[in-house]
Amino acid sequence: MNWIPVLIGDPELCRLSLSESGPNGGGDLFILGKNLGKECHVIFRQLANNSPLNVKLEDNHGDAHPLDGANSETLVSWQKEAALEVEFSQQ
Fold first, then answer.
1. Do 59 and 6 form a contact (C-beta atoms < 8 A)?
2. Do 42 and 31 touch, CB atoms closer than 8 A?
3. Which are the contacts of 60, defined by CB distance < 8 A and separation ≥ 6?
4. Which InterPro entries does the annotation name (predicted)?
5. Which range (5-9, 51-55, 83-87) has the least confidence?
6. For the chain, what is the mean pLDDT?
7. Which of 19, 33, 47, 76 is the most exposed place for a label (fewest CB within 10 A)?
8. Is the dihedral of CA 72, 68, 21, 27 positive or negative?
């Protein structure tokens, strides 16, 4: 299953440990980068099969997002906010 992390805030991603995961979850995703503070959020979205969007990771961060202003119910199959372990975050 392919998913798209949506990054809220002003983070700079250097590396992701995974690019896809099984539908049952249970794995760990490690995100390495800059400006990933306690105020950052990571939201996973799976685009619907009929979605006209072709969103790339580098275009998929910040407060403005291609799904904003669109009917996200028809473009996104599901979305879930990640539970971050902020004790591992370094400022």
1. no
2. yes
3. 4, 5, 6, 7, 66
4. Ig-like_fold, Ig_E-set
5. 51-55
6. 68
7. 19
8. negative
Range of the domain at 52: 4-84
Dihedral, 29, 33, 36, 40 alpha carbons, nearest 10: -60
For residue 49, report the phi and psi dihedrals to the nearest 5 degrees.
Answer: -60, -30
* Residue 6 pLDDT grade (very low, low, confident, very high; cuts 50, 70, 90): low
For a pLDDT cut of 90, what percent of the chain falls above it?
0
Rounded CA separation 31/54 (Å): 22
Q: Which two tokens stand for residue 22?
A: 């099984």
Q: Token pair of 40, please?
A: 């950052």
Within-domain flag for 49: yes
Exposed (0-12), middle (13-18) or buried (19+): which is 45, by Cβ within 10 Å? buried
